[in-house]
Amino acid sequence: MGNKRLFFLLLGMIVFIVLMALTMGSRRGFTWPEKFVKDTVATTQGWMYRPAAAIAGFFQDLRDLQIIYRENKELKKTLMHYAEDTQRLNDLEAENKRLQKMLEFTERQKQADNYKYHIANVVAASTDAYNRTISIDLGEMDGIKKDMAVVTDAGLLGRIQNVFPFHSDVQLLNNLNDTDNKTKAISVTVRGKESSSFGVIETYERDRASGSDYLVMTKVEHDPTQGIEVGDTVVTSGLGQVFPKGIMVGKVVSIGVGEFGITPRILVEPFASFTQIQEVFVVEVPELR
């Protein structure tokens, strides 16, 4: 009996649904209660949709901001690495140019003399205006000795002042003005177009207007009217037994009257720069070993 009742109940519901479908399909419109219900539902859905869409958009914006933040962070890292690589490349190119010049310098020197050149890196520089020195990474263990000449690819820079087992101090040419001038005097030769003149460089002076350093050459054996001209090249003569012969020193920039008006006073512009020094050569003369 129970199964029969359930069967008739399901059959009745099916018939009811079919009749409702036939009735709705035969009608051309909706009744006013149906219209009221549909409008109410649509209005309510509209009210609920806008806040829900706004909330959903807000969370979507947050997700987009997180993505943009991560992308911006990655871009910053990439830009930082690019800047580091660019700086590294610039440093390598500058080092390559310096080494190329030094190689050309050593090749030229092989043809001019039989000196041995020890390449050294500058590891420190003194900031004392009255004690201009630099420190290099060669010392006694590398065969470096006191008073050896120190040069760059441009010209004479100074001499070895103090030697330690693994490094040495170099006195620069623009540090000649102290109480020990005798050991630092540079015997030089002025190579003129027609003749050569000998002299001694013992001091330097600075042009306050330009800030340039000039070596002062005195005790010149010839009068400037007999061959020395502005622009002539000054090299070491080797007579002072400290600096070997033939090392480029600088060029003549002015010729004046010396003490007592007897010999000329010549200003020499050094070829070597005394600032931003990175690599140097220590000159070893085989005959003096």
UniProtKB/TrEMBL annotation:
InterPro entries: Cell/Rod_1, Cell/Rod_MreC_2, MreC, MreC_beta-barrel_core. Residues 122-284 form the Rod shape-determining protein MreC beta-barrel core domain. Residues 82-109 form a coiled coil. Signal peptide: none annotated. Pfam families: MreC. Gene3D superfamilies: Rod shape-determining protein MreC, domain 1 (2.40.10.340), Rod shape-determining protein MreC, domain 2 (2.40.10.350). Keywords: Cell shape, Coiled coil, Membrane, Transmembrane, Transmembrane helix. The keyword Coiled coil applies. The chain crosses the membrane at residues 6-25. Involved in formation and maintenance of cell shape. Belongs to the MreC family. This is Cell shape-determining protein MreC. The gene is mreC.
